[in-house]
Specification:
The structure holds 2 protein chains of 2 kinds.
Chain A lengths: L1 H24 L19 E8 H13 L5 H8 L2 E10 L8 H11 L3 E9 L4 E10 L2 E11 L2 E9 L3 H6 L37 E4 L2
Antiparallel strand pairs in A: 1-2, 2-6, 3-4, 3-7, 4-5, 5-6
Helix pairs in contact in A: 2-3
Chain B lengths: L4 H7 L9 H21 L5 H8 L1 H63 L8 E5 L1
Classes of the chains: A alpha+beta, B mainly alpha.
Chain lengths: ~210, ~130
Amino acid sequence: MTNWKTKFGLCWLALAVMCAALPAFAQPGKLQLDNLDKLSSKASVVNDVSLDGSLLDLATKVVQSSDDPDAAQLKEAVKGLKGIYIKNFEFEKAHEYSPADVEAIRTQLAHGWTRIVQSHDKRQDELDEIYLLKDGDRVAGITILVAEPKELTVVNIVGNVDVNKLGALAGKFGIPDEIRDKTGKPKSTTPPAKPDKKDDSHDDDQDVDLQ
Amino acid sequence: MHFSEDDLKEALRRKDPGPGFTQRVIARIGQEEPQAAGKTTTIKLPWWRAAWRSYPALAGALGVLVLIIGGGLGYQQYQHIQAQRRAEAQKAELAKQKVVEALRITNATLGHVFRRVSEPSVGEPKIRRQTL
């Protein structure tokens, strides 16, 4: 009887160890965005993009075989990326999503990620944040979180992201010319000089770390 | 074993074959000739050659049937491979469209954040710039 109990206990222990080790096998930098899926039914517009490494490779092959001169830039932008995961919801009415939905994302970003941009406007009830995940000196991921009353967007890119290359695609492939400045040079983000303290006490503040 | 001269003489002594000897010999020869002739025609042939010889039309029809079935299977395989290639090409094109869509949303979102940060409206809060 004691032997049976010991074996049963060991099985539970092994299971617990395996469960604890599971996150280690997950793709580093990839956020769990499943909690936002429930918003799909409330949203009037849903953009849900999930591109893992294999799909990115496939897309790169198509781009390579293309004669389009802009294809090289697209290939460069995608090069080094391991995954792109986007959830974008547009709602007819304000506050269709709860602060807890946003907090669930921010909680994941609290570990290992560095916030480089934060804009919290209480009057317009809008939160904009950009986080970077660093692996040594290189960027291993970027997450953009935009929470507006009628729109919620989470962009999670895993891999070596070069915002300059993303900006170079503006105006091509139907990509809007959003992150170019008036001189025509794309703006870019760089890792912050100081680690972010994540001080949310300044509700109307904007913390910027742009180059 | 020892044979005496008398034994040999007895054994080699002329004997009368009896009446009808010639007819018996001729009859025996007549029996053995067809058997010998039959042996030359029963050469072991492969089944398909034997079938071809026995039923040439049937063998020809079977051959055509095999060709048709083989050709059909080959064509089916070719179609299957082509369909697979088309599906892969479609999947790749879809992946490319998704990448473009992802980059479009990313650029738009980044642009939105940059705009919010760099162009605050009048009377809006203070901006702290950490690094420029």
